[in-house]
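Input for the complex:
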Amino acid sequence: MRDDNGIEVEGLVREFKKGPRAVDGIDLVVAPGEIYGFLGPNGAGKSTTVHMLTTLLPPTEGTARVAGHDIVREGPAVRDAIGVALQEAALDQYLTAREHMRLQAGMHGIPKAEGLRRGDELIARVGLGDAADRKVGGYSGGMRRRLDLALALVHSPRILFLDEPTTGLDVQSRTALWDEVARLANDEGVTVFLTTQYLEEADSLADRVGIIDTGKIVAEGTPDSLKAEIGRPTVEAAPLEEGDMERMGAVLRRFGSPQRAERNHLAVRLDEGSAELADVVRALDADGISVQDLEIHAPTLDDVFLVKTGRRLEGAEKEAEEVEGETGELEAVPA
Amino acid sequence: MSVAAATLRAGLGGVNVGTLTQVGYLARRSITRTVRQPILIIPSLVFPLFLLAVNSSGLEAATLLPGFPTDSYLTFALGLTFMQGALFATMGAGQSIAGDIQHGFFNRLQLTPLRGPALIAGQLAGVTLQGLIQGVAYLIIALAFGAHLEAGPAGVPVLFALSALVGVAFGSLGLAIGLRTGNGEAVQGVFPLMFVLLFLSSGALPRDLIENDWFQFVATINPVSYLIEGFRSLFVTGWDGEALALAFGVALGVLAFGMWAATAALRGRMERT
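Predicted:
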């Protein structure tokens, strides 16, 4: 690999004692200047991957090069090239933002005057100018995240790793952080490796998305190409009378292939696209089935995750009550 | 990349940050944290002084024992007070690093060109300051209540030097425990064990006046006895070269062991490649 700002991963594995493989042989390539979204549920292996790529955790197997440097043999060179904001904003509640900056710059060997100037510039850029001399213990979650990002940038890294940077943030803070990440990639050419469990974040921010589940990458591509793989929209409906589930299933199957659905709902992916929705409604009406709920869904990254893993990404721990049999039959699970 | 960022990167080429520079930054952080957490210093000031008050009033009659080296139990008991302060330093240093590990700050430092010795030395700076603040407070309060410093004003810097050295030595032990466990509660769990060492020493009576054979034996092999006796010699005897040499020697020994243990624990904790 060239000495550039990209990331190349081959067969990366991390096993923990007495545990399953947290990361189970992943391969990926992130191009210089790209924003790569690593999407997956809790426990999928996102953070373990970040810890390995940032040299904090040696891999059990496999290789990876970050900014042209091997993560095992050239740890210091990798760390010099990267900025990292890990899952929890690791700040000292007794220090101010300016003191954090001074410490971070000093540890990176930036001369004092330059460190102070750079620190003030970054504090202002993330909108913490007014709070620069306040102890971090009094900061909100959004302020902590913004300071964490600023600290990751103090030595002007070429590659930025952000591990779930917006988890727990309000919409305003989340949007502000997205804007700054996009600006870094677009204006400064920083490569961004971003883990998230938010579909919207991956969809709107990432140039390409890798979907990880139980340590394996199950899909990869641009958000649009991944959704295009799923293609057609899904119609999801619930009968007013629970006893009509079977008849509703028979009607819906005439229009497309069965899909997983929410509790007491049935779903099919429409063979002919959204133009068929009116026909679906007419057919249900003709069979005398009263409808309690009917929705049409454009494909989302959640649908991609569902197709690839058989589970929904958000709220995956709440098992879908409606399951699809291997024969493609719609099976209603009682409430 | 912006021009400013490119310039900064060019200036950083081949970063090789000196250990002393890093010690300076980490020491500054450690001292700032200590100063901004008076609640951590207050127990280490109040508890030893409270015990000093209780002991000096309740055990004053011990001074009547033939061979007791002074007629003021307050003066005699001050060695124990200084030693107790050092044990609080153990807990402070250990909990500080354990908190850094638990809250991810340790990872932040690992992602910089951090050098292990710089982390250990920097972390101990706050403990040293705490030890000095405690030492000054113990001395002023004890003198105000009638204690006597037989070594005179020249003994004050020696007293503070020993106090700082013992604080750093036991602080390094706390650091080792904190690095090994990464858990503040585990560090606290070790604290009672340290107090056992304190009470099985010559803290309450001179070793030659302890009549119980096993207690006298344990107090004799307990290194804490020699540290207490070093402090005590400055208050009671004046200039006792042997007691001071033993105290500084034991403190240096504890420091050497603590640094070795902390370095080994740090090596295990820093998994970075």
